[in-house]
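Whiteboard transcription, Tuesday session. T.W. wrote the C-alpha cells on the left side:
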C-alpha cells in the first residue's frame, strides 16, 4: 500500500515531468529549464497553538513561491493532515502555469498547515490561522504573495489572515489575501468562478467535437462546491445530468437528475446517497456512464489506467487539481478521448482572485455583469489558445496548455534576465 507521503511525493515528480516534456517540445534552453524546474523559495515553519483546555500542540506549516517573474505570487492555503512539502511545491508550480495560461500577471505559490481542522474548535482554528499568518508574514503582501482559500479554508480563514497581517502594520491591507467575505473587501462571483471557467472550456471543447450541450448527457464525479455549481450551469445550458457521485456514494437516473434538488439534498444530508428519484450505483461505476461529458471534480488520482479503460464519455473535464493519473491520461489519449486539463479548467478561480486583488488595490468594485463578462472573455481566450497550440504542435490538450504556459513564463524570465 502506498503511503500518503509517497503518493504526494509522486505528485511533485509528475509536475516536474510535465515541465520536462514541455521543455523538450519547446526546445527550451537548458539553463532556463533548470530555473523553472525548482521553486524560487520555500518556507517551513513550526509553531505552537494553545487549545481550549490549556494544552499546547506544535504544528508544521509551509509556504512556497515557484516563480515570480510575471508578477507577485498567488495560491491556496490548505489545512489537511496529509499536506507535504512536495504537494505544496507541485501546487505552486501548477499555479505558475495557470496564471500564465490565462495571462494573469501572477506567479505561483501555495501553502498550508498539517492539521485535521475538524478536531479544532472555532477558537482554536482562529488561533492556528492567525499564528500561521504571522509565521509566513515575511513572504506575503499585496505586492509579494496573495494567499487564497483552498481545502478546509474559506472566507473566514482569509478574513483572519487579512486582519492578522493588518494588525502587524497598524492599518487595513485588504489586498493581502483574496477570497474574503464581501464585508471586508471580497468580491462577488467567487462561488461559481471555478465552475464558470470550467463551463466555458467545456462549451468550447464540445463545440470542437461537434457536441451540442443542449440535451447532452453528463456525469459529475465530485459534488462539492465546484462540481455542484458546474452541474447547475450545465443543467441551465440544457444538459441532462444522469449520474452524480460524492466522495462515498453515487446515484443515477437515466431520465435526468434534478440538480437543484440534488444540491439541496447534499447540503441537508452531507452526502448524495438516497437522493429521491435516483438509484444507487457503485461509486466507481460513474466512470462507466454512457455520456457526452464526464466531469471529475473530486480528489486527486481518481482516473487511473484501469478506470480510464472503462470511461464511456466523449470528453473528460478536470474540474479539480490532478484527478487523472499519467497512466490514466495515456489510456484516454490512446482511445481518442480528449481531457480538458486542470490548469485550464480550474483557472477561473485564479482569474476571480485577480479581480478581487485589482478591486482591493483600487478600492473600487465591479458589478456582477462586469465580473462575468471579463471572466468569460479571459477563459474563452485561454481555451482558444490551448486548442490552437494543440493543433499546431499535434499534441494533447494538457501538453498544449503546459507548453503555452511554460513559454510565457520562460519569455518573461528571459526578458528580465538574471540578477546580478
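and on the right, the sequence the group agreed on:
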Amino acid at each position: 500500500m502506498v503511503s500518503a507521503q509517497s503518493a504526494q511525493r509522486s505528485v511533485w515528480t509528475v509536475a516536474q515531468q510535465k515541465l520536462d516534456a514541455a521543455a523538450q517540445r519547446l526546445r527550451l534552453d537548458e539553463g532556463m529549464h533548470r530555473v523553472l524546474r525548482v521553486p524560487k523559495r520555500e518556507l517551513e515553519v513550526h509553531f505552537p497553538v494553545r487549545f481550549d483546555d490549556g494544552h499546547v500542540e506544535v504544528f508544521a506549516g509551509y509556504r512556497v513561491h515557484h516563480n515570480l517573474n510575471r508578477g507577485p505570487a498567488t495560491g491556496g492555503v490548505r489545512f489537511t493532515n496529509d499536506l507535504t512539502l512536495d504537494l505544496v511545491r507541485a501546487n505552486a508550480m501548477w499555479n505558475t502555469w495557470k496564471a500564465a495560461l490565462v495571462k494573469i500577471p501572477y506567479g505561483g505559490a501555495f501553502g498550508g498547515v498539517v492539521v485535521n481542522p475538524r478536531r479544532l474548535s472555532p477558537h482554536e482554528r482562529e488561533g492556528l490561522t492567525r499564528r500561521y499568518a504571522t509565521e509566513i508574514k515575511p513572504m506575503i503582501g499585496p505586492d509579494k504573495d496573495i494567499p487564497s482559500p483552498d481545502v478546509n479554508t474559506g472566507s473566514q480563514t482569509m478574513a483572519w489572515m487579512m486582519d492578522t497581517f493588518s494588525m502587524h502594520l497598524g492599518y487595513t491591507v485588504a489586498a493581502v489575501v483574496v477570497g474574503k467575505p464581501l464585508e471586508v473587501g471580497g468580491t462577488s462571483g467567487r462561488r461559481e468562478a471555478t465552475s464558470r471557467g470550467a463551463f466555458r472550456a467545456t462549451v468550447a471543447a464540445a463545440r470542437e467535437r461537434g457536441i451540442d450541450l443542449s440535451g447532452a448527457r453528463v456525469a459529475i464525479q465530485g459534488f462539492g462546491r465546484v462540481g455542484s455549481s458546474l452541474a447547475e450551469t450545465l443543467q441551465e445550458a440544457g444538459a441532462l445530468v444522469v449520474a452524480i457521485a460524492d466522495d462515498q456514494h453515487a446515484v443515477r437516473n437515466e431520465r435526468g437528475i434534478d440538480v437543484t434538488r440534488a444540491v439541496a439534498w447534499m447540503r441537508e444530508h452531507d452526502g448524495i446517497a438516497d437522493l429521491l428519484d435516483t438509484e444507487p450505483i457503485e461509486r466507481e461505476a460513474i466512470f462507466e456512464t454512457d455520456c457526452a461529458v464526464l466531469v471529475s471534480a473530486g480528489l486527486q488520482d481518481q482516473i487511473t489506467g484501469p478506470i480510464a479503460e472503462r470511461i464511456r464519455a466523449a470528453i473528460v473535464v478536470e474540474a479539480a487539481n490532478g484527478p487523472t493519473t499519467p497512466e490514466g491520461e495515456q489510456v484516454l489519449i490512446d482511445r481518442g478521448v480528449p481531457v480538458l486539463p486542470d490548469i485550464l479548467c480550474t483557472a477561473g478561480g485564479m482569474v476571480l482572485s485577480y479581480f478581487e486583488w485589482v478591486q482591493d488595490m483600487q478600492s473600487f468594485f465591479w458589478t456582477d455583469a462586469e465580473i462575468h463578462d471579463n471572466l468569460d472573455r479571459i477563459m474563452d481566450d485561454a481555451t482558444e489558445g490551448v486548442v490552437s497550440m494543440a493543433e499546431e504542435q499535434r499534441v494533447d490538450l494538457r501538453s498544449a496548455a503546459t507548453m503555452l504556459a511554460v513559454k510565457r513564463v520562460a519569455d518573461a524570465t528571459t526578458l528580465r534576465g538574471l540578477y546580478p
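Someone added at the bottom: Residues 269 and 275 are 9 Å apart (CA to CA).
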